[in-house]
Amino acid sequence: MKTSERTTPRQxxxxxxxxxxxxxxxxxxxxxxxxxxxxxxxxxxxxxxxxIKTVYVQMVEADTYRTGFGERxxxxxxKKITEQTPYxxxxxxDADSLLAIHLTAESQTITAYNRYDDTREKNxxxxxxxxxxxxxxxxxxxxxxxxxxxxxxxVVIESNSYLVAEMGxxxxxxxxxxxxxxxxxxxxxxxxxx
Length: 194
Known about the structure:
six-stranded mixed beta sheet, single chain, 3 helices, 26% strand, 2 domains, Double Stranded RNA Binding Domain
């Protein structure tokens, strides 16, 4: 190579400075453009209703024969709200909103037997309805307020989990997995509709 074809350290430094300046300008223009757009927000702030600060979660009513489902679902929903949303849990008299959940059905269906007629696989299904109301305006809020949903009954949520006994699972672990999935769906419905 001839010396005239080589890149000198000074040229490399100038190229890096130019590239850095172009990237910085691009980032500034992107941020300014996004902030100028009406209603756009950064992060998870735009996912949730900013008028609501606190949520009172009623104890889940459960129409099931197995005990403890209402309490377990209430606990799971409360944990998900505090972990995944900006909302705080509040008392009934102080909260901005009310989340009411009604567990309407719970079933366990054996889907496979082994050769000794022992349960090999079981399906655990839960069905519930959820209503989230703004206590100041008495309107249903979040994605729960979509037009297809009845104002009285709320939105129907279904959750399934599978028990495979050979993998060391039990009915309790399958039930808890179904409860966790349902809590995740309910809290997901608290996001504002796109």
